[in-house]
Automatic annotation (TrEMBL):
A Pfam family per the record: SAM_MT
InterPro entries given in the database record: 16SrRNA_methylTrfase_J
Name of the protein in its database record: Class I SAM-dependent methyltransferase
GO MF term set: methyltransferase activity
UniProt KW Disulfide bond keyword: no
Organism: Evansella tamaricis
Keyword annotations from UniProtKB, A to Z: Methyltransferase, Transferase
Keyword Transferase assigned: yes
Gene Ontology biological process terms in this record: methylation
C-alpha cells in the first residue's frame, strides 16, 4: 500500500502503540512516531496519507482533504433500527432477502447496505462484501469487527460481514455457479447525490470503476435468485445492462433487478 504511514494519537498508551506497530506490519507501510506533531504537519513532512490509531477507532487523513475518514454506520443505524421494528427496508426488499440467504455485495464501500443485508439474512445467512481499495476495506473491515452500537442484534450483524479486498469481477469470475442467492451492485453514481458527503474524505481512494457487462453476466451465473443494481434515477446503466427498474417516486436513486428464478 503506497503513500500511507501509520502513527498514533497524541499521547498513546502502550496498547495503542503496540496496535499501531501491528497494523503497520499488516499493511506493510511505515510506522512513524507521532512526537507531538499534528497530522497536517506529518502529511507535509512525509508526503503521505496518515492512518492514525486512536483509542477506539482508526482515522485516515488523506492528503488534500481536511476531514478524516473513519468507520461509522451513520444512516445505516437509523435504517437498522427501523428494520428491527418493522422488517422494512428498500434495499432488503429489492434484493428479496430472507433468513439464510447468501448475498455478495460487489461494491461494499462503507458497508451500509451490507449491514442491513446481514440483519435480514441472520445467523444462518452469509454476507460477503468486496472492496477493491485496500485502505477502505481495511478501515471498514476493522470497524465492522470492533464498532459497538449498543444494539446487540446490530453488533452481531456487523461481526458477521465478511470483507474482501478484491475486485468484484475477479471474485465473480472465480465463484461457482449459484453459489450465492443475490449479487448486489451499488457503484459510484454517474451523477452526484446531495447528502452523500460522508464518503468525500476517502473518495479519491475509491475504485472509480463502472459495472461492466461481463460483471453482470458473471453475476447472473453466480446468483441463484436475482441480481440487483442500485443507481441514480437518471442512470443509463439500468437499460444498458438489462435491469428492470423499480421506480421510486421522489427518490434520488432506484433499484433495478434481474430475476433468475422461474
Amino acid at each position: 500500500m503506497e503513500g500511507v504511514i501509520v502513527t498514533t494519537s497524541g499521547r498513546p498508551s502502550q496498547r495503542i502503540l503496540e496496535r499501531a506497530l501491528a497494523i503497520s506490519k499488516q499493511l506493510q507501510v511505515p510506522f512513524i512516531q507521532r512526537k507531538k506533531r499534528s497530522v497536517p504537519t506529518m502529511k507535509t513532512i512525509y508526503h503521505s496519507n496518515v492512518l492514525v490509531v486512536e483509542e477506539d477507532r482508526l482515522t485516515f487523513h488523506s492528503r488534500g482533504e481536511q476531514k478524516p475518514f473513519f468507520f461509522h454506520p451513520n444512516a445505516a443505524m437509523f435504517r437498522a433500527k427501523h428494520w428491527l421494528k418493522t422488517r422494512e427496508d428498500p434495499m432488503v426488499h429489492a434484493c428479496g432477502l430472507t433468513k439464510g440467504d447468501r448475498i455478495f455485495d460487489a461494491t461494499l464501500g462503507l458497508g451500509s447496505d451490507a449491514i442491513l443485508a446481514s440483519l435480514a439474512v441472520g445467523q444462518s445467512g452469509r454476507v460477503i462484501g468486496a472492496e477493491k481499495s485496500k485502505i477502505i476495506s481495511f478501515i471498514v473491515g476493522t470497524g465492522l469487527k470492533e464498532y459497538v452500537s449498543y444494539v446487540p442484534k446490530v453488533d452481531e450483524a456487523l461481526r458477521r460481514i465478511e470483507v474482501l479486498s478484491v475486485n468484484h469481477l475477479d471474485w465473480l469470475v472465480n465463484a461457482p455457479d449459484h453459489s450465492v442467492d443475490v449479487v448486489y451492485f451499488d457503484p459510484m453514481f454517474e451523477e452526484s447525490v446531495t447528502g452523500s458527503d460522508g464518503f468525500e474524505p476517502i473518495r479519491i481512494h475509491t475504485a472509480m470503476e463502472t459495472i461492466s457487462e461481463q460483471a453482470v453476466l458473471e453475476a447472473k451465473r453466480v446468483a441463484r435468485k436475482r441480481v440487483v443494481l442500485k443507481d441514480h434515477f437518471r442512470s443509463t446503466r439500468f437499460q444498458t445492462l438489462g435491469f428492470h427498474v423499480d421506480v421510486r417516486l421522489s427518490a434520488t436513486f432506484h433499484y433495478g433487478t434481474i430475476e433468475l428464478e422461474d
